[in-house]
Description:
Blueprint: H1 14-33, H2 37-56, H3 76-93, E1 101-102, E2 108-112, H4 119-125, H5 130-137, E3 154-159, E4 165-171, E5 176-183, E6 186-193, E7 197-206, H6 211-217, H7 222-232, E8 247-257, E9 260-274, E10 277-285, E11 291-294, E12 314-317, E13 320-324, E14 331-334, E15 337-340, E16 346-348, E17 353-360, E18 366-372, E19 376-386, E20 395-396, E21 401-405, E22 415-422, E23 425-427, H8 445-471
Antiparallel strand pairs: 1-2, 2-3, 3-4, 4-5, 5-6, 7-8, 8-9, 9-10, 10-11, 12-15, 13-14, 15-22, 16-21, 17-18, 17-20, 18-19, 19-21, 19-22, 22-23
Helix pairs in contact: 2-3
Amino acid sequence: MTNETPKAPPLYPKSHLLAASGIAALLSLALLVFPTSDVEAKKTTLSLELESPAEQLKDEAGTAPLVQSQAGQGSPFAQIEGAQADTEQAAQQAPAADDNTTAKLPGHREVTVARGDTLSTLFAKVGLPANAVHDVLASGKQAKQFSQLKHGQVLQFELDKDGQLASLHSKVSNLETIRLSKTAKGYAFDREIVKPVVRTAYAHGVIKSSLSASAQRAGLSHSMTMDMAKVLGYDIDFAQDIRPGDEFDVVYEQKVMDGKVVGTGNILSARFTNRGKTYTAVRYTNKQGNTSYYTADGNSLRKAFIRTPVDFARISSRFSAGRKHPILNKIRAHKGVDYAAPRGTPIKAAGDGRIELAGRRGGYGNTVIIAHGNRYKTLYGHMQGFAKGIKNGSNVKQGQIIGYIGTTGLSTGPHLHYEFQVNGVHVDPLSQKVPMSDPIAKNERQRFLQQSQPLIARMDQEKATMLAANKR
């Protein structure tokens, strides 16, 4: 008998295997015809990657050159690898652009002024030679304004086809633009000034620590704060009279362009409550064109002398008949008032007059003496130096800067020594009653009230609205 090993029965019937093979074939065909979204996304990305370098390599005829590679001559992969290689090489050869230089058009360059920049360095950044700077500055006095650079200022260059300067312009401020344009005779200078819309604005503040800090919180600029102190400085001594709780209201001109505030103008009306007493000022221009500030009832705010010749200074020593001199160390009358302030702080003439002395005078150091008519004289000592045009015999106007705080002569620190004389006798300038100027003329009083009353009403209304809003 022959022993034969029996055959293992099939795992699946033959009919089942045939059916499974058919289904697998159908699924493969379906995947080829209808790919999944994941496959489709990858294919789209690849397509974009393939097209981009080829587009970069197109020549002027619009065809992409073929590049040989291991993938085979003329293959699309050869074009891609060649495009990437050329792109990388071009990137390596291209000069790195300066961080503050921008090129929008072939002949257009914009450069932002950085710290330490000069006109020469800016010209170099856009590829212009040094002699181009000389040609610009030598074209006229006005062209020298381009050398007065500010940090953050933008200069725009236009270059011709030969890379030479065709024009240069810069925005000096929100309202002013200067330009140089090349002509057959050199460079022509042009200035463009845009007139803003002028509207009125209101500010209110309460003194907490200082006037400058409170005014800043109220939205007033430093120059506007100084103007307010100047307008009301005949009645309020801003060096010593200001107290916490004092408050102010101001209606002023505001310059606007494209809905943006670009500057301020004149104070139209101001009101300051100091130690419970309120002072009001209204700006008025009479029929002759002269402008001044008056009280609400038409009395002039301008007096023969201002109260303080130094803005926001601190009184370090008062008028006294028996003060001990800090340097001489002996009792010696102090015939004036000392105002301590940082070195270089401007000093103003207390009133109109003629300069009797602008020079050295003993322990006073650098000194200015002004004669105000035949009756009054003022003295300003320990100056660091004199303002331009201040000399013996020259005339000065009230509020005009005559010098700067210093520590010349017998002085322990930077301050102004200020004296006031009436008929040759020294008096305390803080207690001296100064003469008043003329009020509004009778024939202009009605016109003045028509202008002043709406301004006073505006301050009242704005303040009431603001206080009501704060109570909510």
